Amino acid sequence: MLDVFDRCRLHDDVQPVTEMGAYPYYHPAEERLADGRVRVHGRVLVSVGSNDYLGLSADPRLKDAACRAVRSLGTGTSGSRMANGSLTLHETLEGRLATFLGQESAMVTPTGFLANLVLSALVGPRDTVLADQLIHASLIDAVRLARARLRRYRHNDLDRLEHLLRECDPAGGALILTEGMFSTTGTLCDLPGTAALARRHGVRLILDGAHDIGLIGPGGRGAAEHYGLGSAVDLHTLAFSKCFGTTGGAVAGPEQIILYLRHQARSMVYSAALSPASTAAALAALDIIEHEPERRHRALAAAARLRADLTGLGYETGDSPTTIIPVHVGDLVLCCRLWRELFDEGVFTTAMVPPAVPDGQALIRVSTTALHTDPQLDQVAAAFAAAGRRLGLIP
User: Fold this and answer.
1) Confidence grade of residue 336 (pLDDT, cut at 50, 70, 90)
2) In this protein, which residues make up the domain named Aminotransferase class I/classII large (predicted)?
3) Residues with catalytic annotation?
4) What's the CA gap between 32 and 295, in Å, rounded?
5) Which residues, other chains included, contact 376 with Cβ-Cβ below 8 Å and sequence gap of 6+?
6) Beta-carbon neighbour count of residue 389 at 10 Å?
7) How far is residue 187's CA from residue 27's CA, in Å, rounded to a whole number?
8) I need a labelling partner for 101 at 20 to 30 A (CA). Which of 25, 67, 93, 348 fits?
9) Model confidence at 16, in pLDDT bands (50, 70, 90)?
10) Which of 291, 318, 339 finishes a domain?
């Protein structure tokens, strides 16, 4: 009989990357400073790989809220929401989120990943899920868990989406699954076109707002508000690990559907409830999102400035209008070498390599936050200039 452990080998490129000291993952932060910098291996670096777009994870108001919750409710919930882990604090956050997103109801989950796994309860083996090619791994896992048929279309390719909709088995159900803001490229979904197709074919539309809720739209309500199409989205998922500066997630939608998911979604029923500290921090973050729009304005302005600098240097950065700037490299090893060169220049980024991106499309993911100062952005651009020239990536 085969030993399943014999299959447990990393990608062939990992060994040479490790040997050259360019392995870009699992570098622990010893300290996270309040100005968006981190201390890693004893060095203070400008962090431009974070999802903390509004800079709230170190905000004193979130820290104070979390500490108060720990003092009154403890460090954990000791059970699932269904059994004995529900808190009044959870329900307060759910009511606030539902109102904020213009939905009837909401359900808080322990992580954003689990919020997306909840969707597995909506479909089954006879159903088809039509999904953008760039959706997050957690959404793919939800479809696999449900054993539904997954049909993916090229990023924002509405002609292909319509073709797949016409091919759906009329004897089964179908839904469209996409993201408001895509985590690798920073692009927004073509929600107007996607919503029109959903209406035309009579299928539900689910939008993962992990990265855009809190950042995009006049009130920070995400891509749906940005396009003025809040009512076109049947169900929202979101994560607190981005704009909310903590951990956790939520699903928001019609009351009947949320009630069904509370009882049928395994990732909800069998997971310990979100901690008091994270719940209180998310509530504090929601207050800031609603009342301090200047934070998202600053994060987006910083991205526009840095994107222009990197493009001017000769890098290919795509057409993202958000805080995420993908710096395309292509080759996996070269991408990791660029990551290391940037690290040595005092800049902490994120290397995105397969399977997070397609083969041959490795990139450095840069993201700006509300905390980044102009001198820090200048430092990042200078680091890319020096590192790119040493590696022959730019003139």
Assistant:
1) very high
2) 46-383
3) 183, 211, 242
4) 19
5) 36, 37, 46
6) 14
7) 27
8) 67
9) confident
10) 291
CATH number where 80 lies: 3.40.640.10
Give the model confidence (pLDDT) of 278-313 as tens digits: 999 999 999 999 999 999 999 999 999 999 999 999
CA angle 100-134-145, nearest 5°?
80
- Over residues 171-211, the pLDDT tens digits come to 999 999 999 999 999 999 999 999 999 999 999 999 999 99
Structure tokens given for 76: 């954990």
153 and 104, same structural domain?
Answer: yes
Quote the tokens at residue 293: 């729009």
Cα gap 154→337, rounded to integer Å: 29
Q: Are residues 314 and 232 in the same domain?
A: no
Angle between helices 294-313 and 276-291 (to 10 degrees): 80
> Tokens 């100005």 sit at which residue?
35
Does 40 lie in the same domain as 75?
A: no
Supply the DSSP string of 7-37, one letter for each residue.
Answer: G----TTHHHHHHTT---S---EEEE-TTSE
Whether 28 and 90 map to the same domain: the answer is no
Token pair in block for residue 326: 């993908």
Average pLDDT, the chain: 96
> Do 225 and 142 share a structural domain?
yes
Distance separating alpha carbons of residues 241 and 69, to the nearest angstrom: 18
Domain hosting 36: range is 10-47+293-390
Q: 187 and 76 share a domain? A: yes
In terms of domains, do 311 and 210 share one? Answer: no
Residue 275 DSSP one-character state: P
Per the CB < 8 A criterion, the answer to whether 224 and 178 are in contact is: no
Q: Let me know if residue 107 belongs to a domain.
A: yes
Is 365 a domain residue? yes
Residue 94 gets the label, from left (phi > 0), alpha (psi -120 to 50) or beta, of: alpha
Residues 6+ apart with CB under 8 A from 212: 179, 180, 181, 188, 222, 223, 226, 322
For residues 380 and 374, the answer to whether their CB atoms sit within 8 Å is: no
125 occurs within a structural domain = yes
- The SS3 call for residue 382 is helix
pTM: predicted TM-score of the whole model, two decimal places? 0.94
